[in-house]
Design brief:
Radius of gyration: 23 Å
Largest sheet: 7 strands, mixed
Shape: globular
Number of helices: 7
Distance between the termini: 39 Å
Helix content: under 10%
Number of strands: 37
C-alpha cells in the first residue's frame, strides 16, 4: 500500500528552502514520552543556504553546510543549528556571491578583478570546496563535519561552532576521502580515497586513523595508508562514496561512474565547469569488486565481476564460513544517479518529479556473496554453499568470478536508501535488521525497517511528511539487535501548525514513541550520528 502514496501538494519542496541559523537553541514541544534512558544529542548535516544573493546553487550537494542538533536532557528537547564556517561559506558571506565552485555550481571569476589578474588565476588550478554538508563523525575526541574532498572541518558538538579546517592531503596520500568512514569500537577510523598510485596510474587508498593514545596527540597526525586498491582504468578513477569493513577484510566496490581526470585537472575557469561536468560512465566494465585483508593490507587476487550499478551506501558486510556477505543499496545501470538530483528536478511538481524518476536508474537493495578462496577445479560451478542465500558466484574459465545478487528489497521507483544498522554491536558482523529512508521517485516519504533474512518490512509513513535518514540508538541494556529507538527529522509542511519535528520510533515495530516539534522549517539533512551523553 505504501507504494501508492502521492505528493500532489508538493510539500517536499520545503526540503530545499533556505533557512536562517539560530543564535541560541529553541525548545521543541514534546508529545508522547521520551524514553528516560535516551540521553545525548542527534547531530546531522545538510544544505541550508540554497542561494547567495541572486546567485542560485543548482545541485542537491551545493547548498552551504548547516549543522543541526537535537538534545535529549531531562525530558527537554532543545534544537539548535548553525552554518559551518567553511571557506566556501565565509567567503560567500564576505563577497556576497558564490566564490567557490560547488558540486554542480560553477563560481564565476571575481567581477571586480581586471583582465590580467583573471588571466593569472586561470593557472592557479581549481580551488576545491570545503562545504561540509554531508556527514559528521568522530576522530579521537574531536568531531568533524565533512563532504568528499580533502577538507574536513572540526566542529564543537556542544555549541556547533566551527573550530578549524583540516586538509587531509597534509597527513596522508589521498586526493579526497568519503563522507562514510568506518569507526571501530576502539575509535579507529578507516576511510577510502582516490590517489595517484605507482607509475602515474590511479588507485584508491584505504587510510587508517588510530584511536586517541595516552600521549593525547591528534590522531590525524598518525594517519597511514594500509592498503592500495588498483583502478580498472589508469586514467579514470571510479566515484567512491562508501566501502565495506569486517574484522578481517575490506571490500571496495568499483562502479562504472568514472571521474575524467583530464577534465578535472584542466582549467575549469576556461569553460565554466564544475564537479558534475567531470563524471562519465564506462558503459562496458560493469562492476568490479575488490577484497583486501585488513590486518596484512594484502589484496585478494580474485577478479569479482557483476553487471553495472551505481552504489552510494553499503548496508553492512560480514564474514561467514569462507564467504563475505556484502549488502548494498544499488541503483541499476551505469548512468550516474546524481544527474537526477539537480534542485530544479527535486523542486518540480509531483507529476514532473515522477516523470524524471521513470527515466533514472532503478533502486534495489541487494546481497552479494564473495568466496574468499577459489579452486580451479570448480570452474563453471556456483561457489556459494551457504544455505540461506540465493546469491551466486560462478567461476569462469578466465578466472573471473561472476556474481549474481539476492534481492533484499525492490519496489518500482521506491528505494530503500540511507541505510543504518545497530552499528556498534553488529557492524561488520552477521545481523538481521537494517533501517532505511524510503525514497518515492527520489522524494523521502517513509521510514522502513528491513529484516535482511526474511525480507519482512515495517513502515512508518504519514501523508505529506518527509523524513530523513533513520538513526538507530540501542537501549543501554539491550538484549536483542533491535532493542532501541530510531530517530529521524521529519518535515510536515501544511499539516498543522508545526512545520518540522524530531520523530522517535520504537525500533521493534516502527511505531511512534514520541515527537518533538519546532516552529521552524528544517531543510534536508543527509547523514549524522547520535552522540551519547
Amino acid at each position: 500500500a505504501s507504494f501508492r502514496v502521492e505528493h500532489p501538494a508538493g510539500g517536499y519542496k520545503k526540503l530545499f528552502e533556505t533557512v536562517e541559523e539560530l543564535s541560541s537553541p529553541i525548545t521543541a514541544h514534546v508529545t508522547g514520552r521520551i524514553p528516560t534512558w535516551l540521553k545525548g544529542s542527534l547531530l546531522r548535516c545538510g544544505p541550508g543556504l540554497f542561494e547567495v544573493g541572486a546567485e542560485p546553487f543548482y545541485h542537491l550537494f551545493d547548498g552551504q553546510a548547516l549543522l543541526h542538533k537535537f538534545d535529549f536532557k531531562e525530558g527537554h528537547v532543545p534544537y539548535h543549528r548553525r552554518f559551518v564556517r567553511t571557506d566556501a561559506y565565509v567567503r560567500a558571506m564576505t563577497e556576497k556571491r558564490i566564490v567557490i565552485t560547488e558540486f554542480g555550481t560553477y563560481a564565476y571569476p571575481d567581477p571586480c578583478k581586471n583582465i590580467f589578474s583573471r588571466f593569472f588565476s586561470y593557472f592557479k588550478g581549481v580551488e576545491v570546496t570545503d562545504n561540509a554538508l554531508v556527514n559528521v563523525y568522530p576522530i579521537g575526541e574531536d568531531y568533524y563535519a565533512c563532504t568528499e574532498t580533502n577538507f574536513i572541518t572540526r566542529i564543537n558538538p556542544e555549541t556547533l561552532e566551527t573550530i578549524k579546517q583540516v586538509d587531509l592531503c597534509k597527513y596522508v596520500s589521498v586526493n579526497g576521502a568519503t563522507a562514510h568512514p568506518h569507526v571501530e569500537n576502539d575509535g579507529t577510523v578507516y576511510n577510502i580515497g582516490n590517489c595517484f598510485g605507482k607509475n602515474f596510474s590511479l588507485a584508491y587508498n584505504i587510510i587508517r586513523i588510530p584511536p586517541l593514545q595516552a600521549d593525547r596527540e591528534d590522531p590525524i597526525n598518525k594517519s597511514e595508508v594500509v592498503v592500495q586498491f588498483p583502478c580498472s582504468d589508469r586514467f579514470k578513477p571510479s566515484y567512491v562514496h562508501s566501502f565495506g569493513l569486517t574484522p578481517n577484510y575490506i571490500v571496495f566496490v568499483e562502479t562504472p561512474v568514472k571521474i575524467n581526470l583530464l577534465k578535472f585537472l584542466s582549467s575549469w575557469s576556461l569553460w565554466g565547469a564544475n564537479y558534475m561536468d567531470c563524471f562519465e560512465s564506462n558503459e562496458t566494465m560493469g562492476v568490479w569488486m575488490h577484497v583486501a585483508e585488513k590486518k596484512k593490507g594484502r589484496l585478494l587476487n580474485i577478479k569479482f565481476r557483476t553487471s553495472a550499478f551505481n552504489l552510494f551506501h553499503h548496508i553492512n558486510t560480514y564474514e561467514d564460513n569462507g564467504f563475505l556477505i556484502v549488502d548494498l543499496c544499488t541503483w541499476k545501470g551505469f548512468e550516474f544517479v546524481y544527474n537526477y538530483l539537480y534542485l530544479a528536478n527535486l523542486r518540480a511538481n509531483w507529476d514532473e518529479v515522477k516523470r524524471q524518476a521513470e527515466k533514472a536508474p532503478q533502486p534495489e537493495a541487494r546481497r552479494y556473496v564473495l568466496p574468499l578462496s577459489i579452486d580451479k577445479a570448480d570452474t563453471g560451478k556456483n561457489l556459494v554453499t551457504l544455505p540461506y542465500t540465493t546469491a551466486t558466484a560462478t567461476l569462469h574459465s578466465d578466472e573471473i568470478v561472476w556474481l549474481e545478487p539476492e534481492v533484499l528489497f525492490s519496489g518500482p521507483r521506491h528505494a530503500f536508501e540511507f541505510p543504518q544498522i545497530n552499528y556498534k554491536k553488529y557492524g561488520g558482523k552477521p545481523y538481521t535488521y537494517s533501517y532505511g529512508l524510503g525514497l518515492n521517485h527520489f522524494v523521502p516519504d517513509r521510514l522502513c525497517k528491513l529484516n535482511v533474512k526474511t525480507k519482512e518490512t515495517w513502515v512508518w509513513q504519514e501523508p505529506d511528511s518527509y523524513p530523513s535518514e533513520p538513526i538507530f540508538v540501542s537501549h543501554p541494556d539491550a538484549l536483542e539487535e533491535d532493542d532501541g529507538v530510531v530517530l529521524s527529522i521529519v518535515i510536515s509542511p501544511g499539516v498543522g501548525p508545526k512545520p518540522a519535528y524530531l520523530l522517535i520510533l520504537n525500533a521493534k515495530d516502527m511505531s511512534e514513541v514520541a515527537r518533538a516539534e519546532v516552529d521552524i522549517n528544517i531543510p534536508v539533512t543527509f547523514h549524522g550520528l547520535f552522540k551519547r551523553a
